[in-house]
Amino acid sequence: MAKQVSTPLYQQLLDRFDGGLAIAQQAEPAFLKNARLQAQDSFRNLGFPSTRVEDWKYTNIAPFLKNNYSLDHEHAVLHENTLDAAIIEGLDCYKLVLLNGKLMATGYKEQLPSFIKIRPMAEAKEEAGFQKYFGKQIELEKYHLAALNTASFSDGFFIEVNANANLDKPLHIVHTFSADKDLFVQPRHLIIAHRGASLDVIESVVSDNNAAKMFVNSLSEVVVEENANVNHYVLQTAQEGLRLISHTEVSQKRDSVYSNYTFSLPSAELLRNNLHINLDSEHTESHLYGLYLGADHQLVDNHTFMNHRLAHCESNEIYKGVLLENATGVFNGKVYVHQDAQKTNAFQQNNNLLLSTKATINSKPQLEIFADDVKCSHGSTIGQLSQEALFYLQSRGISEDSARALLVTAFAFDVTEKIKIPELEVYINKLINHHIPANQEMIKI
Amino acid sequence: MLSIKNLHAEIEEKKILKGISLDIKPGEVHAIMGPNGSGKSTLSSVLAGRENYTVTEGEVLFEGKDLLDMAPEVRAREGLFLAFQYPVEIPGVSNINFLRTALNEIREYRGLPALEAKEFLKLTKDRQKLVEFDTKLINRSLNEGFSGGEKKRNEILQLAMLEPKLSILDETDSGLDIDALRIVSNGVNKLRNEHNAFVIITHYQRLLEYIVPDYVHVLYNGRIVKSGTKELALELEEKGYDWLKESYSETESVK
Ligand SMILES: Nc1ncnc2c1ncn2[C@@H]1O[C@H](COP(=O)(O)OP(=O)(O)OP(=O)(O)O)[C@@H](O)[C@H]1O
Ligand SMILES: [Mg+2]
């Protein structure tokens, strides 16, 4: 059986490599042109992954590639209420808005301190930071969609924080997606935190609730230089018509701390997150916290990859899943400890609540350890709400719906309590509460 | 207030309650005693609405309404409270948040506005004092890692907060030290009035010295085999249950 999905979209994309895209890319720096060519070759070979590809075994993207997607999105209009959906009440922050992967000119430059540089990706190619860091970590020959993105992305954001600078408020980046006909978009982003810088980024993904389908193949690179500290929050609350493949490639240098918090919530049909953390120096610290709450027919897939290359690094990962209705969840947590990565401390945990007989979860921790002096542990559980606990709460006058919501919130607590921004924690808990009570058909043990 | 008529209940096709009748009026305290496994907790679970029991016969009226027809939370909102023999630990749900949710849902049902944060805290403090409940425990996860006695006291704190009409205390005294027993009993006595009623399930006469019952019933093998006044508890303490079991099996064999 083929390892590729057969879809007209494949040829359509290849044709663009040699046609319009080639012209648009002519003025790009040589290294980028080379990277594009290499990426084109990779995608030409790889195509879109079928479920024969191990990493895509439980996530069949074939049904999402059948649409007659347009590759041009110049005429999109941003709807006010789409933007409103991303508002985090009471949060004092800097704000950026993107529409279909393109930065919108809404005066973001004026509001930001001078030590942080923000550019549309299309205009950042001459930046020293771009030239130094772009595409350095991703193995294009392995990652189908990352290759496709590298070959053909046109825009996104470029953010660079100067050495030792400390952004006083979180930077809230709102990715909005909107289309009146089926659309294929490929945003590309780069965040650089220079030596000793610290930064809180919140990325919200929202979309219009109209009939058009949008396939988003997004790729972000995050560079955390020596001693830098990045808190990276990702909130996926898009509407049903969105199919999102989001690849985040992080590289960390000595004494840096990177914390990622990924919240995947209803109702996007497909959410596939690839989160790769590359530890490029000794003495780094990484935290990966995830909460996925799938409802309806959602397919929510989190693939994380902790790449321990060198010694004395610490990683800590907790992903929690709640699956309702007909939702399918996938968790694949790979921890790779290279031979040189002695004294590694790697901890991973994945817990799941299955709240409907029709929901599914595929959980796979994957430890590959080639060093002998390491501390690594992992655990994975799948369970249901305790009927005893539900009855206890109900016997105090609490409705069954509220009782469920309380228990799910409690289940998610290990993750939500890690959020360092109080307004954000309140926001997430509200979202959880919003999605739980509506589900009448729950199973109990 | 509560009227149980010929109540039969089973679990997994095993008959546990075999015809219980009991009338409780406002202001009364009833004690239920009886050997292990006789059905005391089953009776309280059926009254509180635990799902896995099936009522096969009989009826229960609570203030004239069909209790068995109500969801567990509705029973609580109508004014029924069960202090569990084995309170449940719920990690991640804070005790205080739980109390607030419960109180406000009950108030909403009764057409009262939610309590302001300040009023709620004042009420909590007040009730905490009544049962001498440790402030440190109030912010912890619900019953998680609480000692046996702390859990029982937490049940009584909840009782004091929610002010039910009918409270069923299922072996609240077991696990309490001597001081805690006195404190909890004093708390209950302060909450007692002519409008509410208590059912005290216990194995020991000692609790009944503090909370003096109007009636004492003996439950054996799913039936109330004897009822009397507080002197009956003393008699049981002295003689045990054998004499009742014997007379019970006699009536059984006559049938
Ligand atoms: N889930 C169940 N499945 C099967 N049997 C049960 C179940 N729950 C209770 N029983 C049985 O019902 C009977 C009555 O139990 P119950 O807990 O009501 O007794 P009790 O009078 O409260 O005893 P104790 O004084 O020990 O608390 C016991 O024989 C018990 O084993
Ligand atoms: Mg019992």
Automatic annotation (TrEMBL), chain A:
<dbReference type="Pfam" id="PF01458">
    <property type="entry name" value="SUFBD_core"/>
</dbReference>
<feature type="domain" description="SUF system FeS cluster assembly SufBD N-terminal">
    <location>
        <begin position="11"/>
        <end position="173"/>
    </location>
</feature>
<dbReference type="InterPro" id="IPR037284">
    <property type="entry name" value="SUF_FeS_clus_asmbl_SufBD_sf"/>
</dbReference>
<dbReference type="InterPro" id="IPR045595">
    <property type="entry name" value="SufBD_N"/>
</dbReference>
<dbReference type="Pfam" id="PF19295">
    <property type="entry name" value="SufBD_N"/>
</dbReference>
<dbReference type="InterPro" id="IPR055346">
    <property type="entry name" value="Fe-S_cluster_assembly_SufBD"/>
</dbReference>
<comment type="similarity">
    <text>Belongs to the iron-sulfur cluster assembly SufBD family.</text>
</comment>
<dbReference type="InterPro" id="IPR000825">
    <property type="entry name" value="SUF_FeS_clus_asmbl_SufBD_core"/>
</dbReference>
<dbReference type="InterPro" id="IPR011542">
    <property type="entry name" value="SUF_FeS_clus_asmbl_SufD"/>
</dbReference>
<protein>
    <submittedName>
        <fullName>Fe-S cluster assembly protein SufD</fullName>
    </submittedName>
</protein>
<feature type="domain" description="SUF system FeS cluster assembly SufBD core">
    <location>
        <begin position="180"/>
        <end position="411"/>
    </location>
</feature>
TrEMBL record, chain B:
<dbReference type="InterPro" id="IPR017871">
    <property type="entry name" value="ABC_transporter-like_CS"/>
</dbReference>
<keyword id="KW-0067">ATP-binding</keyword>
<dbReference type="InterPro" id="IPR010230">
    <property type="entry name" value="FeS-cluster_ATPase_SufC"/>
</dbReference>
<dbReference type="InterPro" id="IPR003593">
    <property type="entry name" value="AAA+_ATPase"/>
</dbReference>
<dbReference type="Pfam" id="PF00005">
    <property type="entry name" value="ABC_tran"/>
</dbReference>
<dbReference type="InterPro" id="IPR003439">
    <property type="entry name" value="ABC_transporter-like_ATP-bd"/>
</dbReference>
<comment type="similarity">
    <text>Belongs to the ABC transporter superfamily. Ycf16 family.</text>
</comment>
<dbReference type="InterPro" id="IPR027417">
    <property type="entry name" value="P-loop_NTPase"/>
</dbReference>
<protein>
    <submittedName>
        <fullName>Fe-S cluster assembly ATPase SufC</fullName>
    </submittedName>
</protein>
<feature type="domain" description="ABC transporter">
    <location>
        <begin position="2"/>
        <end position="246"/>
    </location>
</feature>
<keyword id="KW-0547">Nucleotide-binding</keyword>
